[in-house]
Write a structure and sequence with these properties.
single chain; 120 residues; mainly beta; 7-stranded mixed sheet; 4-stranded antiparallel sheet; 11 strands
């Protein structure tokens, strides 16, 4: 069992930056890929970024490539999402996720979500 708790969301102006954190509990953390999804009002939840356990291999949605960076610290059971050059269309609830593979398969675990609002 893995529990995920996000933090770091908030209100920021367009062009600004935020860093999201996701603290995981449960011994399976280091075994799983970790990542982030987001859900804007009235839209479905979509993949944002993933980082694998081994080698730190990453994957990103095209909409965030070059602006967002995902990282993880296995010693702290934490995954991060550094978001730069934020745009109003990045406004959404951001969810941390974990699983064997989350970019192409439904995650096994979800956090409760944290709101990110980007004003124009």
């Amino acid at each position: 069992q893995v529990q995920l708790v996000e933090s770091g969301g908030g209100l920021v102006q367009a062009g600004g930056s935020l860093r999201l954190s996701c603290a995981a509990s449960g011994r399976a953390f280091s075994s799983y890929a970790m990542g982030w999804f987001r859900q804007a009002p009235g839209k479905e939840r979509v993949f944002v970024a993933q980082i694998k356990r081994i080698g730190g291999y990453t994957a990103y949605a095209d909409s965030v490539k070059g602006r967002f960076t995902i990282s993880r610290d296995n010693t702290k059971n934490t995954v991060y999402l550094q978001m730069n050059s934020l745009k109003p269309e990045d406004t959404a609830v951001y969810y941390c996720a974990a699983g064997p593979e989350i970019a192409t398969m439904p995650p096994a675990y979800w956090g409760q979500g944290t709101q990110v609002t980007v004003s124009s």
